[in-house]
């Protein structure tokens, strides 16, 4: 595979994986911390909401979404495009839960989403991360750039 | 914890690779002055990794404490792969040097030096199985070390302060015996000039200048990005002909002529027939009328019996932009082109005879290549190819001789 094509797929992976990762880390900080410590979750959750909304626009084939972040747009179209209705539902639910959490953190809402609801959203995000990893074999693509393979240290 | 052990392993890997890879690059640099640039880049990268990688992995390891060992492990793995590929890229580039003639470097250096506005460029040639392309290392490592839109290792990005280009050359093009096709590298040099000076970018302010960004927009189907990229490709063809006349066109036909380039075009490059038409026009405008006719005939033969493909959608200002670009590039290469034109008046025949008889000829590289002809079987001869490479070396010696003020 030409270097530019492999790099472009790696960029797509990097852009896409930020969505579930930011959401998962944000939810984890929110659920494990208390009081002021929870506020550290806000930027991560905001990033996840922003990316989820961009993903929804990409699934709706909105070209301005492609202009905003073409790597992310291409990733979303190639990974989630075939079952776009199902993924649109998942992303909308995630946005709703995370917005409610942010509203609580900003002091605009007295009630945070229930732990079960947050756990459910985290599971959905994990599912998205798995799908991204399956669809874009980042390490293999990177190895193809230099024509070598190296498994590297992994946590087993 | 397991992730701490991962951290130690990765840091050990960097140190071990530093001890292994730097001597390889230094060895290549001791043989080639150009490779000193690669050695400098490698030291910068190892230094940035040694200074900041531990802290970065430590930050990621903290996620384990947030009960996300899977996310932490994945991020560490992503970072590690990026480190490993960056180092492997440098090492393989150093190892490739044994198979890349210094005359090919001379050709790149000669072409880029034609452009007075261009600051000195760091360019390293490396081998690839089949592609002729250019990669800017900052963009390359930026793509590897990224999470979302954030750099995972901004210290590395900051350390690579100026553009560093790698031109990937297909292995079949590297040997001296293939030097008749070396003018193809002028196209890549034009990409470097364009990336630095942004001639076309100024005409198309609405599209990004980063190659990876522009390619992604093309893939996403954004029409203005597709047109911009195709226009840049045409301009690089056009400018390469400005420098080496038919030499580039024949090499392009010989190495890349494929009917599927007409009927299954890529999103990033103009259709093959459109590129040939651009080359034909550039040659005709510059006095190589016989060669332009031959190219026209080649194009007609290639498409004979097939329905004419539809029109290629190019940027509305493509003709104007190409002319502007050609004007800029002609200024860079005018002297050699004029030499070539003057020689076509009559002495070209004796020059070709000299080439065929394996006698040395002193001409600048582009003029030399502009006079070699695809349709003469002798120029497919590997011995003639090697001779052309020798002449590039001779020209280098002559130019050094003059630079040092040595005459006689």
The N- and C-terminal alpha carbons of chain B lie at a distance of 74 Å
* Assembly state: heterodimer
Distance between the termini of chain A: 30 Å
Q: Which runs of chain A of at least 5 residues are low in confidence (pLDDT < 50)?
A: 149-156
Radius of gyration of chain B: 24 Å
Query: What's the helix count of chain A?
Result: 7
Structural class of chain A: mainly alpha
Biggest sheet details of chain A: none
Gross geometry of chain A = elongated
Percent of residues of chain B in helical segments? 55-70%
Distinct helical segment count of chain B:
18
Summary keywords:
heterodimer; A: 156 residues; mainly alpha; 0% strand; disordered C terminus; B: 408 residues; 3-stranded mixed sheet; two-stranded antiparallel sheet; 18 helices
Description:
The complex is a heterodimer of chains A (156) and B (408). Chain A has 156 residues and is mostly helical. Chain A is 76% helix and 0% strand. Chain A has 7 helices and no strands. Chain A is elongated, with a radius of gyration of 17 Å. With 408 residues, chain B is mainly alpha-helical. Chain B is 67% helix and 5% strand. In chain B, a hairpin with a 2-residue loop joins strand 3 and strand 4 (150-151). At the A-B interface, helix 1, helix 3, helix 4 and helix 7 of A face helix 1, helix 3, helix 5, strand 3 and helix 9 of B.
Break the fold down into its secondary structure elements and pairings.
The complex is a heterodimer of chains A (156) and B (408).
Chain A: H1 3-32, H2 41-59, H3 63-68, H4 70-80, H5 84-105, H6 115-135, H7 138-146
Chain B: H1 2-31, H2 35-65, H3 69-96, H4 102-113, E1 122-128, E2 133-136, H5 137-144, E3 146-147, E4 150-151, H6 154-159, E5 164-170, H7 184-197, H8 199-203, H9 211-219, H10 223-244, H11 246-256, H12 260-263, H13 272-285, H14 289-303, H15 318-344, H16 347-356, H17 365-370, H18 382-403
Helix pairs in contact in B: 1-2, 1-3, 2-3, 4-7, 4-18, 7-10, 9-10, 10-11, 10-13, 10-15, 13-14, 15-16
């Amino acid at each position: 595979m030409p270097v530019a094509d492999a790099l472009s797929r790696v960029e797509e992976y990097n852009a896409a994986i930020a969505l579930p990762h930011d959401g998962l880390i944000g939810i984890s900080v929110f659920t494990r911390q208390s009081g002021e410590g929870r506020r550290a979750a806000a930027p991560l959750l905001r990033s996840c909401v922003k990316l989820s909304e961009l993903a929804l626009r990409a699934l709706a084939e909105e070209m301005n979404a492609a202009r905003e972040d073409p790597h992310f747009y291409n990733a979303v179209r190639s990974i989630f495009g075939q079952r776009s209705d199902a993924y649109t539902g998942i992303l909308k639910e995630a946005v709703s839960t995370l917005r409610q959490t942010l509203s609580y953190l900003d002091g605009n809402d007295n009630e945070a989403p229930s732990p079960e609801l947050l756990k459910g959203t985290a599971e959905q995000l994990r599912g998205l991360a798995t799908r991204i990893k399956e669809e874009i074999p980042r390490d293999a693509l990177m190895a193809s750039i230099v024509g070598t393979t190296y498994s590297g240290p992994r946590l087993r | 914890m397991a992730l701490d052990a991962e951290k130690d392993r990765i840091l050990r890997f960097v140190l071990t690779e530093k001890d292994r890879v730097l001597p390889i690059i230094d060895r290549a640099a001791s043989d080639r002055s150009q490779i000193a640039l690669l050695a400098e880049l490698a030291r910068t990268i190892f230094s940035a990794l040694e200074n900041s990688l531990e802290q970065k992995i430590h930050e990621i390891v903290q996620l384990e404490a947030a009960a996300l060992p899977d996310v932490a492990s994945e991020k560490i793995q992503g970072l590690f792969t990026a480190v490993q590929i960056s180092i492997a890229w440098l090492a393989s580039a150093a190892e490739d040097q044994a198979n890349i003639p210094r005359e090919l470097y001379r050709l790149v250096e000669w072409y880029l030096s034609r452009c007075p506005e261009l600051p000195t460029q760091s360019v390293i040639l490396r081998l690839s199985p089949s592609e002729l392309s250019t990669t800017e290392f900052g963009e390359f490592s930026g793509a590897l070390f990224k999470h979302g839109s954030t750099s995972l290792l901004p210290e590395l990005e900051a350390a690579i302060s100026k553009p560093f280009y790698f031109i990937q050359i297909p292995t079949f093009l590297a040997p001296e015996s293939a030097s008749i096709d070396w003018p193809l590298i002028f196209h890549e040099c034009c990409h470097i000039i364009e990336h630095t000076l942004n001639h076309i970018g100024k005409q198309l302010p609405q599209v990004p200048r980063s190659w990876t960004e522009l390619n992604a927009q093309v893939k996403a189907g954004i029409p203005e990005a597709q047109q911009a990229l195709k226009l840049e490709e045409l301009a690089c063809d056009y400018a390469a002909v400005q420098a080496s006349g038919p030499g580039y066109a024949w090499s392009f036909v010989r190495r890349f002529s494929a009917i599927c380039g007409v009927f299954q075009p890529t999103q990033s490059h103009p259709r093959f027939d459109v590129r040939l038409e651009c080359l034909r026009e550039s040659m005709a405008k510059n006095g190589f009328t016989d060669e332009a006719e031959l190219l026209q005939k080649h194009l007609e033969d290639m498409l004979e019996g097939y329905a004419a493909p539809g029109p290629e959608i190019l940027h509305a200002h493509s003709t104007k932009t190409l002319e502007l670009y050609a004007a800029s590039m002609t200024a860079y290469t005018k002297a050699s082109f004029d030499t070539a034109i003057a020689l076509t008046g009559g002495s070209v025949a004796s020059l070709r005879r000299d080439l065929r008889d394996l006698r040395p000829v002193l001409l600048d590289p582009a003029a030399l290549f502009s006079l070699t002809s695809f349709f003469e079987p002798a120029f497919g001869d590997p011995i003639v190819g090697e001779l052309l490479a020798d002449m590039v070396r001779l020209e280098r010696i002559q130019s050094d001789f003059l630079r040092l003020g040595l005459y006689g």
